User: What shape does this take?
Amino acid sequence: MIRVGGKEHPWREGLTVAELLAELGRAADTPLVRVNDSYVSRPRFAATLIPDGAEVFLVPMIAGG
Amino acid sequence: MSVIRLEPRLSFPYRRSAVERGYTRRTLHVDLSPPAVTVKPVSPEMERLFIGGKGFDLWLLWQAVTPQTRWNDPENEVCIACGPLGGTPTYPGSGKSIAATISPLTGTVIDSNVGGYFGPFLKFAGFDALEIQGLAAEEVVLVVDGIEQNVTLYAAEGLPEDAYALTAFLTDRFAQGRPRDVSVVSTGPAARHTRFGCLNFSWYDPKRKRARYKQAGRGGIGTVLAHKKLRAVVARTESSVTIDTNAPADRERLRAVSRLHSREIVELDAKQNEMAVIGTTHLVTIMNDHDLLPTHNFRFGSHREAENLGQAVFRRLFDPGFDGCWMGCTVACSHGVRDFVPLTGPYRGIPVFVDGPEYETIAGLGSLLGIFDPHTVIEMNFYCDAYGLDTISVGTATAFAMECFELGLIPPEATGGLELRFGNRFAALELLHQMARGEGFGCLVGEGVRRMKALFAERWGADPGLLADIGMEAKGLEFSEYMTKESLAQQGGYGLALKGPQHDEAWLIFLDMVHNFMPTFEQKAEALHWFPMFRTWFSLCGLCKLPWNDIVPEDNRDTPEPAKVMKHVRWYAEYFSAVTGRESTPEDLIRMSEAVYNFQRLFNLRMGFGRREHDGIPYRAVGPVTDLEYESRAERYDRQLAEIHPDRDIAALSTAEKRALLRAHREAQYKRLQDAVYRRRGWTAEGIPTLATVRRLGIDFPEVVALLAAHGVRE
Assistant: This one.
């Protein structure tokens, strides 16, 4: 099990960030994901595995100073 | 150790004007030669049209200088203002000061937005803005004491040289046991020897028991202060600031909207960018992943070692704790490194607290120089602040010098023996120390990229065309740290910015390159209208932009215009209405900015700039200058060329031919963008506001109309 934005979500071996976003229907509007303390941006979604028990946040990233 | 002496030269008692609806409605003018102090009223028209902050700075500076004024003339001023909302401790990001002057780099007006307590303290001491004019005959310190209700100019001897030690001394000297009541603006020794001296604005951190610093970095305002022999300006007031200190028109309305925004940040920052923990350091790896992190003088946008400079490293290095650069700010992103031990310079081997680094500093002093060692970046950050240098200009100017050295555009002896190659961290540090000592090649680098280009061509016969392509400046200001080759919108964001290529006016790169929010030309032009206008508004009011769009509502993506974060824009309109009593909508905020923005464009025009020809950018900001750059992303460029020229056999062309073809296309696109943006802004094809535009905005003063007529803009 992982937590996404504070809510529980089922985990499976080999789950990538890209697959998680597809499952959530958030692939198009999410440029950045935080997995525990690591920030993963779109070019690395497909290659980044999510570990079991991870805390995941979808970061909107509009911004900049 | 020399004895420190501060002797009063001029004492000016005054009666502190009460703050009412965010304004004191008075400004303070200090002439250093001969010393004189004047208090000026803020007219209702000045308040209505220029709002405050940068608007007040521009209006005061406009009256102080002439088209012939140069940065080092006595009549040039350093202006510092807060804004009507500045100093509110309940609304996040409400403690900004805005400094302005005629820049030693650009020759026209520059403004810089900075944290620290000075601006609000100046206001609470009785003044919406401060003008400093003249050149002192001796080193001086100016103290605006709102508690004693006195302005004092001290002749100074023996003060510490660097900004850290100077601020610590002055805080202790004037605090009368309450260091939180004092904020100091100062610069350092390198500001005397370079054109990109910065100002350090302090606030006192009671937990760490030390002064902390933010920098008004851009454009050499510190250089102007140093040239005036003004070592520092001290503001003192009671630090017991509350929601009532600004005497808002509607206290309960202000409390309600403050609570909404503050709570949202507390709730969402931990789920989003964690700015309260890692500041802006998360941007390093994100930019790197998207090929947008500048490396090696903007040749490339990513590097395999960039992770060494990312948030994972700084998460461990930053000293945990509250790091708000204004009271009550829940973004609290001004982090620092405790007990850092420099390897070089006057603080070698001595533990120091370093304020920073932020993203721009990491990219400018790190990846841009081919340096991927966080400790070197921290050391350079420390010395830039202590010496009074803008980290962005230092980084971009040093990177240019490194590339010129590596390409053989300057001879090895030019650097006095420094092997100024990318990645040579000790050479980069030595340049900084030279800038502080006022000697060696560091002083030449301290002239900035524009003057280095001229010098390298004149003195060593370097190819002016190549220098123009790789020297990353526009309007004389060094680029800040984003790769724009693939983002036409950000090229415009830099090239069409009033002060030069600084991202605060139009940070569009992520919206363009990652979200693809503006795929069409018209959308880019619209973005280059709306975003600079709204972003300008923060500097009119004394606010930080980060609470607007760095932490965004969870339902923002479902709104019609997610890039604008309209829920927050509406909160800002509510905030403005609650403090000033001037009922305002989001559209009103844009109109406020539009007047000041166009006035600044006209200010540029008055100073001999402000036309289409001044909005150009070096080709490296647009596309690959060298074969090396082209071939590093050949697949991307080849694909683009095949789309642009479906009738041509791209594979049959040499790299040089392909570069030329791509260049012709991209430069034409940039010109088209200029046309579209000028139209959208209500400017002529030459980039000058039309008479109809200045009339619509209410800035059709007789001198403005005459200025337009002198440039052929009439009915």
